[in-house]
Amino acid sequence: MDLGLAGKVAIVGGASDGLGFATAQLLAKEGATVVMVARREAKLGDAASRIQKETNSRTVPVAADIRIAADCGRIVAEAVAACGRIDMLVNNDGAPPLGELASFDDQAWAAAVEQNLMSVVRLSSSAMPHLRASGAGRIINITALSVLQPMPKFGLSVATWAGVIGYAKTLSLEVAQDGVTVNTICPGRFATGRLAKVFGSGAALDDATRAEMVAQIPMRRIGEPVELAGLVAFLCSPFAAYITGSVFHIDGGRAAHLV
Known about the structure:
Elements: E1 9-12, H1 18-29, E2 33-38, H2 41-55, E3 59-63, H3 69-83, E4 88-91, H4 106-134, E5 138-142, H5 155-175, E6 181-187, H6 193-199, H7 207-215, H8 225-236, E7 247-250
Parallel strand pairs: 1-2, 1-4, 2-3, 4-5, 5-6, 6-7
């Protein structure tokens, strides 16, 4: 199926691995030019080269730290300088540390706000003139299922990503007449390095942990990154032009709530 993304330009955060890499890869397969953003320059360069070779679509690596205000502006400026336009912004990164809320001081909270909330605000604001000019601009925020279904020790992420959902809903109302859509995705368990880092030894999940995790998912399996990337690509496409201000959970049926 042709999603109508050929010739479009996307900025994708956290693009050197995991969900960000899968998203960048699929958008490139659909013919988009992808500006790939991550902190580690060497790893990002390797990822960008791999996608460009596999898809024959252009990739533009931009090594930057979205927790730094100046870097957010630079990402957008470099994307425009290299590609002349921006049609899609996929806000995606890692997450703040885990721990009980009482253990975090003001500095930890400030860092979480910069990483999860202010990066989205700054990148969206910087990109907005170009998304408006596109006539079909798209902002997709990738958060986590824990925002909708909080878990102990995930409080920094839950609180700050909840702010992203509120920001995105409000922004969607303010830019809808410009043809810009703003949506948020809350992924469940996906087969990425972060899953092993959070729930395993850092390198892999042990068999018992994996079995327990799978047992909590109605589909009885962990998601593949390309399955999330498919939702991102659809939301970026003309077929999703009437979808905005929405929150999607993609989790194999695991979410235990009605909406």
